[in-house]
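User: Round two. Same drill as before: sequence, then structure, for each protein.

Assistant: Same drill it is. First protein:
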Amino acid sequence: MSNLRKWWLLRRFSLILPTIGRRDEPQQFLASLAAQTFRDFELVVVDQNPDNRLAPVLDAYGDLYPILHLRTKRVGASAARNEGLGYSCSDVVAFPDDDCRYPPDLLEKVARFFDRHPEMDGLTGRLVDGQGRSSILDFDLDPGPLDAVNIWTRSIEATMFVRGKSARRFRFDETLGKGSGTAWESGEGTDYLLQLLSEGASLYYDPSLDVIHPQSVPPYDAKSMRRAYEYGCGRGRVLRKHEYPLRARVGTLVEPLKRVMVCAASLKTAQAYYHWNVFRGRSRGLVTRLDVPHARAARARKALPSSRESP
């Protein structure tokens, strides 16, 4: 059977991997896929590199599992995920980062969850570092359904698994996320899941589902300060886009201000400046006017229940 024919077989998972500027990290992710105990998956690599740095890496794993290598210009993570979605035809779609790794039993656990809960449209897990500590976000340690309130501590792109029939109905907002060319360098995964919730999707969070990802801070250097601001911009943007109530907007500003004061009182100047940049970014995202209203999604979200019975 030819490789083309193997590619078009319907598989359980499509893993859509946008990547640019890296070689070693994607190689580590591909190695983690080779160790998976559940083998019914395909990898869709959306390669934005101007060179062929990934070709030897992909060739090394091409006989172990199906890989579709898509080449595109530099379009940003959200546009790259949308490109990959157009090629997915599996039962479940995932959106790993190019610097994350899957534990060997991750896909087996996710497949088992969807087998046991056919009523669920999506599942999210927890991003952790090599020592098992929450990475990037302060993740909730309790499992349960996702809603518009708890989504901020129960989801991130690399831990999202969505049934294909639901995933392909929506697209990532290409003005959000890394490489978008805007100030809104985060929030695309939250926005994507809020779209699903607005249409009545059932999403569940299980913190025992780990995806391994390095910590972004420390160090509190110029790169992390810039990231704090840009990620803050993205969060504020999503809050405004989905018309969150005033209390939520105020809360998202008060949180980093409290951390500024605590760090300043402890003479942790770098940490205080980091959280100040988070505050500045969120403020900008909240006050910048939207070009297109999103009233329908906001009205639908306001009707969502705050929680449901756990599976």
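Second protein:
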Amino acid sequence: MRDTRPVAISCGEPAGIGPEIAVKAWAALGNDIPLLWIGDPDHLPPDTPVTELASAGARPAAGTVGVLALDLPGAAQAGQPRPEHAAGIIEAVTVGAALAASGEARALVTAPISKKALIDGAGFAFPGHTEFLADLAGCHRVVMMLAGPDLRVVPATIHIPLAEVPRRLNEELLIETVEITAAALIRDFGLAAPRIALSGLNPHAGEGGAMGDEEIRIIAPAVAALKARGLAVRGPLPADTMFHARARAGYDAAVCMYHDQALVPLKTIAFDDGVNVTLGLPFVRTSPDHGTAFDIAGRDIADPTSMIAAIRLAAEMTASRS
């Protein structure tokens, strides 16, 4: 049975490319996946046909973008975020999460935000969408996955300085990250017995302790504990040999020790169609795997491929949960 509920799209930073790629995604997908834009309709590209809706369950007029309107004071100026928009941007995410959690929307897709603009304009207290959505949902722990057609990666630590990574890594963190990842691969991606690979932290996965001992002290014990719980995991593996095509065929997701260790291979392999996914939430949330792109905002040249991929994946994950 076809799911007629919309995928909600929170407006993100209106001075960036979010509004443009959302409308381009609507043009590409609107007949297949209903979309609901949450934000100020005046911030959409000029001449965008819109229908302002009173609820997520209402249907827009044919050939128009459905909008759940929020009043963000003042016009959006391409490439120039305005502090007075920050509260409305945060409200759009909050409303979208509530709609997805209640089932009124089938999923939430978040357009890119400028964290600095939210901090400057509204004192935003979170490193990014992932942590904010976890707080809204009351989740103790969620996991960030970046997913492309040929690779899924999970950073065990995310938005922290590289110097902090060895101090933050511990066996409990890795076990929890892998368990959340495995559960999501089963529930959201339809994999009955997911295979997960863990990277090392140091060059050559520590070279038996010659280049660091985190692999011996932390990562290998976590792998052993996870295997004892019946999960198909292996590692620690040298990160420089984990991501070629033959290696990728041996696992369904790679858990890496820090942000760039995970995101560099993903963005190299799937720069245009990578998707950011938050695992462990009670609802489905995805996002395009890029930022606000202030440098090209307002020029009608932004590539919507990642936004389209985020919407498609959100719909597929919702269907898998069903």
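The first helix runs from residue 18 to 29.

User: Perfect.
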